[in-house]
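Question: Send over one sample?
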Amino acid sequence: QVQVMVSGGGSVQAGGSLRLSCAGSGYTYSSNCVAWFRQAPGKERAGVAVIYTGGDSPYYADSVKGRFTISQDNAKNTVYLQMVSLKPEDTAMYYCAAEEGTYCSGLGALKADQFLHWGQGILVTVSS
């Protein structure tokens, strides 16, 4: 059974950095689709970044492009979200989601209903 564990949230001032980790376990396949989503108060959940761990270019939402980097450590079954130049509007609950053995690429991959396995949300707060 796939489980996804998220860690690394916290509070920073605008312009600061944080790194989120998404550790997966129980995968049947070595290559999976893993994405980060976020939900700000009063707003719908939105896709942030997605990566296919089998190797392909990741995809980013326009709002984070150039500031966030999604990366992977396959030996640890972990996907990271490095966030720099954080803005108050990045404040949200962040979620990691995984779909086993599924190739994913581009905007079409960043849809919440395509992911079966979700980690717990973790709060990121950016103060001005």
Observations:
- The chain is about 0% helix and 50% strand.
- The first strand starts at residue 3 and ends at 7.
